[in-house]
Please model this.
Amino acid sequence: MNSGLVSTSHLVLGLLARGERHGYDLKREHDLRFPSARPLAYGQIYATLERMQRQGLVDAVSRERVDGPDRTTFRMTRQGRKELTTWLAEVETPAPFVTNLFATKVTLALLTGDEGAAADYLRRQRQAHLARMRDYTRVKTDPESSLSQVLAADYALSHLDADLRWMETALDRVTGLTEEMP
Amino acid sequence: MTVAAALRADSDAEMNRSPLLSARSVVVSYGRTPALRGVTMSVGGGEIVAVTGASGSGKSTLLLCLAGILRPDVGEVRFGDRVISAESEAARSRLRRREFGVLFQFGQLVPELSAVENVALPLLLSGVRRRPATTAALEWLDRFGIADLADSRPPQMSGGQGQRVAVARAMVTEPVVVFADEPTGALDTLAGEQVLAQLVRVTREAGTTVILVTHDTRVAAYADREVVIRDGMLDEVATGSSDRPTS
Ligand SMILES: Nc1ncnc2c1ncn2[C@@H]1O[C@H](COP(=O)(O)OP(=O)(O)OP(=O)(O)O)[C@@H](O)[C@H]1O
Ligand SMILES: [Mg+2]
Model:
């Protein structure tokens, strides 16, 4: 059950941990706290809440009608809290297989016999990565940024940095390859 | 837009005419070891430029040349309309005292002096009287949130605190250019980040130009752009087209 992705139900449980909310609040809070994630769709939230209600993870506490559709407020059940606690404590399997578009490109460039193109690609990719890192660094140093934005930026920066280190090594290997040739 | 940003935009426009600091075809060898093999690059006023590259690629050597500490064997270094690589040691050291601030990884604070005395030192050396120098030093310590350390001596400070004092010392003369060689190289990341974030904030506010040598891309990401050195030469592809040599 550990797919490495956060399921919508765990997201919902996490957001309900601080008190009851209706679907609209959940969407707003999610999108605000996880600005780099894909925004949650209403349909997805309501479908998830319904399923979670059947599973006994959440309860509908009130329903009000404000000229228009029903607005149901949900709260986490004891079972829901237990599920959340378990999930939060669960160690995630480090991704055993990373789809690495960069490595694939370099390998394919080398297979076509074009080391120059591979090295060139790596250098330009490096530039693009660094530009992205500058964006995240700005987010991080902006006094207006929230802690969750800073944490997300730190995470992205570490990953981009890891890519860059790989590119550095790859570049050395690729240029080494060219120099070995007569 | 902040005033500093507006000033920077101005200086960007100016940079197209003439850069603040530039190296042209700079060659340096230590004995028979070539360290720089013809580097041409330029920096505009108010820019924060990271110089990156592998260990031994020549980053520190380039910084020493740009700061007028080392004279290149071949090529020239210009600051404004001065060709500083052709100037005497005395003229360059006067220039450094007045216009430049330097920040290195280790051993830059005088252990026998308190934080405030360390920060006041560059002012005292350039002839400012003790009272105003101390006042200015205290102000800078305050800006970095370490006014309470004024009377501590370096051995009593943490690495991060010492490095903040060093940044204050580099800024106290309100230099036109700050040269920093791995300024956070000896710190763990969060302390390093705080020092960097402060350095970048105050230099942007003041419109100060910064040359930041680092092998760490996360540090380089604090800069406006990156100049990549590989084997004593500018890696033009990795550096990008923005650093076309100006003639
Ligand atoms: N004082 C010196 N005497 C002799 N050789 C030197 C001296 N300083 C540097 N070198 C050599 O010059 C080359 C460039 O050195 P430099 O210190 O500029 O590299 P760097 O990019 O700053 O490396 P690092 O990231 O390790 O600090 C290296 O081969 C180095 O061994
Ligand atoms: Mg060095």
In short: The pocket of magnesium ion (ligand 2) is lined by residues B 59-60, 181 (CB under 6 Å).
